[in-house]
């Protein structure tokens, strides 16, 4: 599985949240602590950047225009041309948190699953139990589904929309829930994979996640320098992509046939020794010859 550079030195802190937009042949991604959102045009190779005034945890194009971003503790709409930001909702007013990963479910409408996480200080050290999992409806309503999370992260849904997968990074767990696509609610939480102590020095920490058309999960491992494909029926790994960056953060399928994988990573807090070994830390990569394809990412309906 060849790995190539799409945008070298794309991010100065934590590259995250890749989202492929088929209509524009564009990859969106964020640089969390640089308060920046990007879009890379795969045809022209142009990179556009907007910097705002708070951390940005995710970016999702909206069918009503602009993009929806997890801006600090807010869900906000960003108009790309005017750079105008409109706050739609704020959460966790009594906590020092920020939005982290976020995706739309298959209805795209209403429910966007988003997780919060405590602020990192110093880099890589997060106050535990501060995170929650929310959904945001196009009518403006917000639901809290889970709380006392350490680091709400990767999300994915099964093809029949009856199952949702969710990562809480610090306990190193992938959870599975029954999902109701009509109400956007979850129930019957179970642990799909619990990465045992002692494996963290090799695998690292599970971070962003996506699913292929065969129902297999692909998980980026922070401090692991890899993306691992798992079979959710068995919980076993199927294949591994070794990345030229230690702090691999997230992944998504894209390209014309959705047979390419885009991978983000971080250089936030990297010591000189690590940067010497992984000089491409902070870049965005593309992986080909995966033997798998993904589905189009869902836009926000609101």
From TrEMBL:
Record text on cofactor binding: Binds 1 divalent metal cation per subunit.
Protein name (database record): Regucalcin
Coiled coil: none
Binding-site list for a divalent metal cation: 16, 153, 207
Major localisation: cytoplasm
EC annotation from Swiss-Prot or TrEMBL: 3.1.1.17
Required cofactor names: Mg(2+); Zn(2+); Mn(2+); Ca(2+)
Localisation: Cytoplasm
Record-annotated SMP-30/Gluconolactonase/LRE-like region domain positions: 14-266
GO cellular component terms given for this protein: cytoplasm
Pfam families: SGL
